[in-house]
Amino acid sequence: MTDPRRPAVTEARQPCRVALAGFGTVGQAVARLLRDHAAEVELVAICNRHVARKRALWDGPDICWTESMDDVLAQHPDVFIELVGGRSTARDWIARALDAGVSVVTANKQVIAETGATLLDLAAARACQLRFEAAVAGGVPVITGIRDGLAGDRLTHVSGILNGTCNYILTRMEADGLPFTDAVHEAQSLGFAEADPTDDVDGIDARAKLAILSMVALGATPSPSSIVCRSIAPVAAVDFLYARHLGCTIRQVGWVARHDPDTLVSRVGPALVPLSSALARAQGSENLVIVSGQAGGETTFGGRGAGGGPTAVAVVADVLAIARGSQPGRILRHTSPISASSEFAAPFYVRFTVDDRPGIIAAIASAFARHRVNIDAVLQEPGYPADRRPFVVSIDATSVSAVEQALADMSSLDFHVLPPFAMPVLSSIG
Amino acid sequence: MTDPRRPAVTEARQPCRVALAGFGTVGQAVARLLRDHAAEVELVAICNRHVARKRALWDGPDICWTESMDDVLAQHPDVFIELVGGRSTARDWIARALDAGVSVVTANKQVIAETGATLLDLAAARACQLRFEAAVAGGVPVITGIRDGLAGDRLTHVSGILNGTCNYILTRMEADGLPFTDAVHEAQSLGFAEADPTDDVDGIDARAKLAILSMVALGATPSPSSIVCRSIAPVAAVDFLYARHLGCTIRQVGWVARHDPDTLVSRVGPALVPLSSALARAQGSENLVIVSGQAGGETTFGGRGAGGGPTAVAVVADVLAIARGSQPGRILRHTSPISASSEFAAPFYVRFTVDDRPGIIAAIASAFARHRVNIDAVLQEPGYPADRRPFVVSIDATSVSAVEQALADMSSLDFHVLPPFAMPVLSSIG
User: Fold this and answer.
1) Coil, helix or strand for B405?
2) What was the pLDDT predicted at B9?
3) In which band, very low, low, confident or very high, does the pLDDT at B13 lie, cut at 50, 70 and 90?
4) What is the interface pTM, i.e. ipTM, of the complex?
5) Is the C-alpha dihedral spanning B132, B134, B139, B140 positive or negative?
6) Residues A147 and A287 in one domain
7) Which of B319, B341, B363 is the last residue of a domain?
8) Do both A210 and A288 map to the same domain?
9) Which residue in A29, A140, A322 is closest to B295 by CB distance?
């Protein structure tokens, strides 16, 4: 019975001692869900600022309430749950726990995206675990799905809708033709967006999750800042109209692909996706992750990407896995640091907004031709004023750098009312 | 270091010894994929009839080839992979392996659906594992997703497209208006359907998978035969036309819901699903499973439900999990046997095919009224001959038994050219 593959039956163990830092919405939901598993886990400490006020929200048995990480570790927990958010304190506390041989469960995507590989090494050296299911796609068990469920496959490609705020904004624009700013305000009033939505809208949030997925699925850990982001802020209601002419709608999509051991291609930004695709079907604040493997083909994971309930479910699943003695699937690690390339080929959608006059199409077509970019079609909806007229050029598959250079070339032309806005058309990834 | 939560680092272990029974398409794919993990697993025996012929397909290192389960166990494997299919031999071999303390990985849905609970008890008593990811939805890691990834939630409801053959047939009818028999023949010629497709078409295959999902997600193990099945064979091309008028398409859907500890509702059969739903988006031989939890809401798992590659990925993931010492999430078990009820309420679609004459609507409406079934609308497409005219009655939400009793009442009316064909409209489940 000493073979670790055949441990003693779970029920015979003492409950796993759990300490929780961060008693906000998610932390409180975690504490509630843990009570369903009292035979396996016991909450022994809660760490939060303003203990007196927070303690009033607690109706469970007597436990250690503290504002200090020293007190937490003095309780000798088996698992430390980090839900304090932010970067430096969270990272320090995670590292302190792991260094003390205490397994860690966290929802902190920025810390894992930036220093996850180092922290995983520390966990391995101390024979404890670091789990972070809640850091990507909330309650959707995509990390477990990749590390364990798809462990037998050779994975090549991960794409998805990783930010529920952007998806809420874009699907509201799609459904009711709202302008971007109105959709943002609506998302804020409903609690789906922060007062400052920059991190969501510009892709900073999504690229952290993408970096984590890259580490877990592809064994390549690009620094988040090496992943090119394009904002969804330029997306206008008229883009949905034109997209529909092309059989598409618009989503914020993140993707990362590993074509060979040394080439990682990655990007986060608005893209046209076919109306019939899984990505198009994601509505409201839903998340969706598509994982491609050589043997298994495409596997999709979808669900609620944010909110206290779903995030707490992911945290508790990680805690239970540790309590049950499960070892997570190994993360294959690339030996040298790898940067994400932003070069890829796709068809493109480019919307121009111009002060209309003769010769505009000719000027644009010449600039594209100089960069060997082939125009597929020119689309123009009627009903817009001549001095602010949107029209769209669709472009055959070509490299993003050629498109961007052609657009830079055109930027000095004096008919632009708004900068040209380009999005790739992702027919092939979902 | 004796705490089972902190076992020795994986790399220090001897490779896990694996024996494989069944060297067909899936078995060969499993053997290939296992070679990617030589540090963790070692294939030590292959058991198959006609050893001499099968051995010629093997280009790996020298191992034990045999036709006997005694020889397999004499190799002292850590894991036995059962891919022989069928029922009695497979069940006997699984039980023999578990009884010898050897963990088992199987893709055998009928054995797990019928005797999984007993075999899991045997595994627990012998401190070994029984895993069966490949038995449901091929390569889609839905069992792991439920047992581990959603372990923190209270799950209430599972639904999905569990049979790729039926989905291929229905989506071909949907796309090109093929008659049912033509779509079946096409599926057979492409290898998506058996020469005798009865088990797929009538729902026997899907209900075995649904029984397994019920055990894993809801802790209730109905016998597969207690789950009501309705065949997709009566579905006609015209049904897709009418369904579209109602904003729907048609899928074979299995679902199981646990409303309270003693009430399990379950069914497999053709149903109308909204065009905007995840179920409608599943194309060709794809599988899709939707799991609902009290805290996490709906989580979806989709991908390739059959084929050597995806099935092998699931088998290898289970083997690696055992090799790494992972304990699967506990399956909560209902203490008393539970039967699946077939009673549920939904809006219904009923297609009549009649020899047209005055008074038919009146006769049908009276029969429905006698059973307190409320008609929502009557739809009739032009262009069909009067002596074989299809029309559709849509019905407000009501109990399936009331609809079926009303239809039984009408069966003696002499205008029917085909028996009335009823399908529930599942707006609420996906």
Assistant:
1) helix
2) 43
3) low
4) 0.88
5) negative
6) yes
7) B341
8) yes
9) A29
